[in-house]
Amino acid sequence: MAGGAGIIRPSMTRQDERLRRAMQTPIVGGLPDVPGIGAAMRLTPNLGLHLRGLADELLVNDFPGATLSRDERELLATAVSAANDCFFCMDSHAAHATALLERHGRTDALTLTDALKAGGSDGFDPKMRALLQIARTVRGSALSLGPDDVEAAVAAGASDADVQLAILIAAAFSMYNRMVDGLRARTPGSTEAYRQRAEEIAERGYSAPPAAPAPAAAPAPAGAGGSRREG
User: Which end of the chain is more exposed for a tag (fewer CB within 10 A), N or C?
Assistant: First the structure.
C-alpha cells in the first residue's frame, strides 16, 4: 500500500501544540475579526458562498453511489486536517463528527476523534481504515496514491463513490487548512469553543448562517411586582 499516511503523534502532545497555535496572531492585514476559516469566508460574499457550498457538497449533501454517512465524512475531514496540523479545522470537524455520532447514540466519538488527531485509525472498521489511508495519502502526495490503495478500499466494502469522496475531501480540506494557517487566522486554544456551532451544523449544514445569540432580557421596571434576585 502506498505511503503518505502521516506521522503517529502521542495524543497528549496535541494540547501543547494547540496552545502554541492559539498564541499566534494573523500575519495578513485587513482580515475579518473572526476565527478560522470564517476569516477567509468573510473576505467577499461570493467566497463565503462557495466555500460553504463546497463543504455542504462534500460533507452534507447526498453523493450519488456513496455509502459514507455524514459523520464518516466529517471524520475524514478531521484526519486530513490533523495530518496538516491545522488545529482549527481538526478540532471543528472533530466536534461536528461528535455531534452527529451522538445523535445516533454512539458513545465512542472521543475515542475515534482522538485516534485521528494522533494520526491513527484505531477503532475504525476496515472500510474506513482504507478510506483514511486514501485521504491521508492524497493529502501528502496525490500521485503517491496507487491502484492497490483503491483496490483495498473496494475490497473492504467501499464503493467507487466512497473513494471519490475520500479523495475530494482530502483535496478540499487541504485547501481549507492552508487558507486558515496561511492567513494565521485566529484559532481557539480549547476544543470546547466548537461545541455550539457543531450542533448547528449537525442540524442544518454549512450554508445556514450561525444562529444569532439570544437578546438579553430587558430589566423589570422598578417596583413592578417586586424585584427578583438571581441566586
Answer: C
Domain count across the chain = 1
- C-alpha triplet 133, 135, 140: angle, nearest 5°: 95
| 159-200 per-position pLDDT tens digit | 999 999 999 999 999 999 999 999 999 999 999 999 999 999
At position 109, the amino acid (one-letter code) is: A
Tens of pLDDT, residue by residue over 8-52, are 565 446 999 999 999 999 999 999 999 999 999 999 999 999 999
Chain centre distance of CA 111: 16
The CATH number for 131's domain is: 1.20.1290.10
Domain that holds residue 165: 17-204
DSSP letters spanning 90-128: HHHHHHHHHHHHHHTT-S-HHHHHHHHHTT--TT--HHH
| 227 assigned to some structural domain | no
Q: For residue 217, tell me if it sits in a domain.
A: no
